[in-house]
Amino acid sequence: MNQVDQINYAARVGNEAAVRQLLAAGARADQPDGYGWLPLHSASRYGHEGVVRLLLEAAPDAAMAADTGGFTPLHHAAGASSSGAGNYEIVHLLLEAAPTAALMLNMIKEAPIHIAALRNNTAPVQLLLEAAPEVAYAQDAAGRTPLQWGLSYCFERPSEQVMETARCLLRAAPAMQPALGILLQHGRRSATLFANLVAHLPLSQEQWRSIPAPCPDLARALPAVLQRSAAEAGWLVGRLYQYQRKRLRAAALSLARAQQQNSAVLPAELSGRILALSAGRLAPLQ
């Protein structure tokens, strides 16, 4: 086995001592194997943080190197999974070494965030968004965004990990992509995400009508929507269950009466929160 294969194998299995010895003996950290993989690709893919540190010290530019499929070490780290967390520290190290690696695309136009979203690695997704918010809704060769990838494997009851990754992407820049259309494609499976979307993104009346009704979780977004637009708040209420609308009407009348009696006017956000509570359980929007 030559030095290229030796150091790649040591990096893949996480043998820091062997990697250190091979580097001292003249092995190159920037020399690829037959598949274009550097030792850094292997260490990043298999989650060996200590080896990643050694290799970045030896060859910092390796953080930008692509294998024969166009995958950088950051692609590999973003797609790895460890109890749903992904290689968070490794992603952080690679972004420190080469922030623009977050913008690099593989052969099918996937940025690292596409792969992190597919695996629902929420923490790496957040790091990648901070490094390159402009790729939050970039399309791959098939026209799919990270949000579409993140929701692609959610079925009848999406896991909280899937939902948290989706919320992370929706918070990034909802106006930059057709988020509403993506959520509508997934129907009831993404129903809990509509509240996160409408809290940040103004919608037309036609767009509000496209949201499946009843959508009771929308009550969580009422404070934010009411603060933005009374008209939109009315459209939101129209997508709730009838019992929620009745509660809101009763609460609104009571609130108006109380303000009139006390000659006080509550801020729109506070009024919205009170009304939302009356419509049903109000969970905090993230």
From TrEMBL:
Keywords, sorted A to Z: ANK repeat, Repeat
InterPro entries in alphabetical order: Ankyrin_rpt, Ankyrin_rpt-contain_sf
Leader peptide range in chain numbering: none
ANK repeats: 35-67
Record's protein name: Uncharacterized protein
Organism: Chlorella variabilis (Green alga)
